[in-house]
Amino acid sequence: MIHIWSFLDHPTCHVLNWKDFDETREKVFAMIKTTARLNDVTLLLFDGRIYRFDSGQGKFIRTEWDNIDWEDD
Q1: Contact by Cβ (8 Å): 59, 67
Q2: Integer Cα distance of 43 and 23 in angstroms
Q3: 46: β partners
Q4: Half-sphere exposure (Cβ direction) of 37: Cα atoms closer than 13 Å
Q5: Which of 8, 22, 30, 63 pairs with 51 at a CA distance of 20 to 30 A?
Q6: CA separation for the pair 57, 16 (Å, rounded)
Q7: How many CB atoms lie within 10 A of CB 31?
Q8: 41-67 confidence digits (pLDDT tens)
């Protein structure tokens, strides 16, 4: 299955990645989340859904598009 992802608060934020994986969606998402954490990413797009890293819970939480502040700091 083809999966699409991007790190939205990283210098590569304009890069859209995609790859055909043989693994389950859960395993692929786990790999992408690990890569995001290693790169200090807190906002992640995966298969059309946005996830924000919640440091209090220590995990990525699905976030609605409308709840994201898209203005530059």
Answers
A1: no
A2: 23
A3: 5, 49
A4: 12
A5: 22
A6: 27
A7: 14
A8: 999 999 999 999 999 999 999 998 777
**Bridge-based pairing state of the strands 17-20 and 43-46:** unpaired
pLDDT value at residue 70: 64
The amino acid that residue 52 corresponds to is R
Distance CA 35, CA 73 (A): 24
13: Cα separation from own chain's centroid? 10
What's the mean pLDDT when you consider all of the chain? 90
**Distance (Å, whole) CA 72 – CA 30:** 28
CA R_g for the chain: 12
Show the tokens assigned to 34: 């690990």
Three state DSSP letters for 3-36:
EEEEECCCCCCCCCEEEECCCCHHHHHHHHHHHH
